[in-house]
């Protein structure tokens, strides 16, 4: 599964804000130039982004394989018609290009996911959204990263306990309700303990922001982002 | 110096496991004292210590931390009294050891250099030095408990409160934590250890306070404690040594 | 103590409590992505519990914090937490076939919360009448598909009929199962609302 891994690739050394800017500008450019030529150029940019994170396109495609049926369905809906001529390849071109565009945007974003720790993302959020809203969103994002594995284990344990007593014979609605209720109860119990611990450690509005800093490596990447943004408007 | 003066706390009927009322408790705890706070489940131990740094507000009476009411200046109280609660797993806010210990100092708005210095010192004090980038999920139970202690130490408190720190730890992990606590005490940090189980602690503590039904029923030196404690359901060494 | 404590602006206990609950509900919704059940109506598409998270956010956290919880869910996923379907993450998901659904969740949860609790204060979910609960979730589901289908249509350049069939109808029966499950959770008395 794709997730952050510590490393020393060029993409790891980029500031999180730079990486976010590249992704956003890339998506905008991809929507502006969804023709074959535009997508060819953007494929080159994608290859560069993946290389800078030392990610293989095959592994990225594998990680997002659940998208493929959804994209294929869109193409098939257009390709197949309900009357003669039954197959209409010309109509399928647009969805095909759009599906490919989706994969490119997903791949560039995968580079961010692989190379950016939660702490840096949190700092970028608080930089982009100043004030109390940014403080709440930044802290909240950090907590989601931290507690996701714990709650996943909670749910797995709840399901195992349920299956051990043949709960899997019950209808889906009941199983969703029991797992959902037990999961929610655990999550809220953890939340109550966590809130006390946060208060005890002086959770404040005006704390020190985690360190993030633009470096020399950010310059070419920011130029790339600017270039992509410019192509989108001209 | 912690000065608990006729403290009363009532709960509105919603009693969870640890949440018991406290009824007219007065105690004075000098700086640097190693105090064990014991008593059976539901005796009010956890409630009492949550008043020491202003996490709860008294219904009557007050708690003075270095002369100021904890409820009035919670920041001063929380930097003077550090706390590590039960279930340390639910107290960590960051994915890495260093990120979590930095959380408290960050809230105080300290400079990055000062934060780094405090993180290194706190981790050193609990024997987790050099582990800043380790992921919390990879820590053992004993290491997690010590990390929770480090998170509190990074606030550089005068007193450290530990709520049932030995629960679920095997004997080497208990010993590891206890050794660290001895060192901290030797360096001048006051310790308040909440427990219903006195194994390991009686030889080091300077004072034993026992609560029952929200009131102080024993307040004595450890040497005299054993005889009085068993009637209040507190586990005392040498009588029953296994679970 | 050397620290100057006057300048530290503590976050109030109410806000801390709500923030933490919202974050844990967002994380729970991410954890739901790993849990799938057989779909009673269409065995080819297993039911995941994710949309259940949107319902629960509105029901248990109310309009403001429920919407905030879902915003956290989307933001954390964009920033790399594996909370989206298939345990995926990344900004690319917002521009993918399910991007419209993701964008709808904060609005849907806020609407569900507003219909159940009104805009001042939270009611105990257990005391909310069944028709009101179901109507709120139905309205939330309309918002989810109201975002999801047009965005699918726009992103994938298909015709609208294909989008309605491909992105909408295939999933609607499963939403009914999740609504029933949410009612079951609220009535189970196992979850403390406050």
UniProtKB/TrEMBL annotation, chain A:
It is a multi-pass membrane protein. It comes from the Archaea. Signal peptide: none annotated. One of its GO terms (cellular component) is plasma membrane. It is found in: Membrane. The chain crosses the membrane at residues 20-50, 62-83, 95-113. Keywords: Cell membrane, Membrane, Transmembrane, Transmembrane helix. Coiled coil: none annotated. The keyword Transmembrane applies. CDD domains: EcfT. This is Biotin transport system permease protein.
Automatic annotation (TrEMBL), chain B:
Its main location: membrane. Its EC number is 3.6.3.-. Keywords: ATP-binding, Hydrolase, Membrane, Nucleotide-binding, Transport. PROSITE patterns: ABC_TRANSPORTER_2. It holds the Pfam family ABC_tran. SUPFAM superfamilies: P-loop containing nucleoside triphosphate hydrolases. It is a peripheral membrane protein. One of its GO terms (cellular component) is ATP-binding cassette (ABC) transporter complex. CDD domains: ABC_cobalt_CbiO_domain1. Belongs to the ABC transporter superfamily. Probably part of an ABC transporter complex. Responsible for energy coupling to the transport system. This is Biotin transport system ATP-binding protein. It comes from Halolamina salifodinae. The lineage of its organism: Archaea, Methanobacteriati, Methanobacteriota, Stenosarchaea group, Halobacteria.
From TrEMBL, chain C:
GO terms for molecular function: biotin transmembrane transporter activity. One of its GO terms (cellular component) is plasma membrane. It is a multi-pass membrane protein. Pfam families: BioY (PF02632). It is found in: Cell membrane. The keyword Transmembrane helix applies. The keyword Hydrolase does not apply. The chain crosses the membrane at residues 20-39, 51-79, 99-118, 130-154, 160-177. Gene3D superfamilies: 1.10.1760.20. Its main location: membrane. It comes from the Archaea. Keywords: Cell membrane, Membrane, Transmembrane, Transmembrane helix, Transport. Belongs to the BioY family. This is Biotin transport system substrate-specific component. The lineage of its organism: Archaea, Methanobacteriati, Methanobacteriota, Stenosarchaea group, Halobacteria.
């Amino acid at each position: 599964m794709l997730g952050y891994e510590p490393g020393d690739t060029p993409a790891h050394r980029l500031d999180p804000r730079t990486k976010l800017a590249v992704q956003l500008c890339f998506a905008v450019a991809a929507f502006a130039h969804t023709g074959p030529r535009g997508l060819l150029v953007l494929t080159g940019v994608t290859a560069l982004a993946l290389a800078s994170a030392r990610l293989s396109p095959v592994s990225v495609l594998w990680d997002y394989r659940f998208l493929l049926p959804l994209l294929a369905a869109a193409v098939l809906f257009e390709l197949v018609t309900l009357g003669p001529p039954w197959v209409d390849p010309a109509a399928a071109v647009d969805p095909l290009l759009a599906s490919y565009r989706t994969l490119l945007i997903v791949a560039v974003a995968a580079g961010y996911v692989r190379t950016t720790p939660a702490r840096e993302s949190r700092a970028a959020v608080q930089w982009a959204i100043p004030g109390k809203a940014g403080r709440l969103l930044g802290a909240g994002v950090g907590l989601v990263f931290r507690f996701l594995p714990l709650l996943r284990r909670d749910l797995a344990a709840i399901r195992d306990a349920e299956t051990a007593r043949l709960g899997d014979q019950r209808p889906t609605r009941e199983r969703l309700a029991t797992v959902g209720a037990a999961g929610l109860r655990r999550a809220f119990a953890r939340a109550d303990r966590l809130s006390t611990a946060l208060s005890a450690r002086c959770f404040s509005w005006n704390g020190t922001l985690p360190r993030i800093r633009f470096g020399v490596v950010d310059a070419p990447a920011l130029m790339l982002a600017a270039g992509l943004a410019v192509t989108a408007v001209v | 110096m912690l000065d608990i003066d006729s403290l009363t706390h009532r709960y509105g009927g919603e009693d969870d496991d640890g949440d018991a009322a406290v009824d007219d408790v007065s105690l004075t705890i000098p700086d640097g004292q190693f105090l064990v706070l014991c008593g059976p489940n539901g005796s009010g131990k956890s409630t009492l210590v949550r008043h020491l740094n202003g996490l709860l507000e008294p219904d009557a009476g007050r708690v003075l931390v270095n002369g100021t009411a904890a409820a009035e200046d919670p920041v001063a109280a929380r930097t003077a009294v550090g706390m590590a609660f039960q279930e340390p797993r639910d107290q960590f806010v960051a994915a890495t050891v260093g990120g979590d210990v930095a959380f408290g100092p960050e809230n105080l708005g300290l400079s990055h250099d000062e934060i780094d210095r405090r993180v290194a010192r706190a981790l050193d004090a609990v024997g987790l030095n050099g582990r800043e980038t380790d992921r919390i999920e990879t820590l053992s139970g004993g290491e997690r408990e010590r990390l929770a202690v480090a998170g509190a130490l990074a606030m550089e408190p005068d007193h450290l409160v530990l709520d049932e720190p030995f629960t679920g730890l095997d004997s080497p992990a208990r010993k590891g934590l206890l050794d660290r606590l001895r060192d901290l005490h030797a360096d001048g940090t006051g310790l308040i250890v909440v427990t219903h189980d006195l194994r390991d602690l009686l030889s080091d503590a300077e004072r034993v306070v026992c609560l029952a039904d929200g009131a102080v029923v024993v307040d004595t030196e450890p040497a005299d404690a054993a005889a009085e404690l068993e009637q209040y359901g507190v586990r005392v060494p040498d009588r029953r040594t296994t679970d | 103590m050397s620290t100057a404590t006057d300048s530290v602006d503590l976050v109030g206990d109410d806000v801390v409590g709500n923030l933490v609950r919202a974050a844990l509900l967002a994380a729970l919704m991410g954890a739901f992505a790993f849990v799938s059940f057989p779909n009673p109506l269409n065995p080819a598409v297993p039911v995941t519990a994710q949309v259940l998270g949107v319902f629960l956010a509105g029901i248990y956290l109310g309009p403001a914090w429920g919407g905030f919880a879902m915003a956290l869910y989307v933001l954390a996923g964009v920033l790399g937490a594996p909370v989206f379907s298939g345990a995926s993450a990344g900004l690319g998901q917002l521009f993918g076939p399910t991007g419209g659904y993701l964008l709808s969740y904060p609005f849907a949860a806020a609407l569900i919360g507003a219909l159940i609790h009104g805009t001042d204060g939270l009611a105990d979910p257990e005391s909310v009448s069944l028709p009101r609960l179901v109507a709120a979730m139905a309205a939330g589901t309309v918002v989810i598909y109201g975002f999801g289908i047009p965005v699918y249509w726009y992103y994938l350049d298909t015709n609208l009929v294909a989008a309605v069939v491909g992105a909408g109808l295939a999933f609607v029966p499963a939403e009914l199962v999740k609504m029933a499950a949410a009612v079951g959770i609220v009535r189970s008395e196992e979850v403390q609302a406050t």
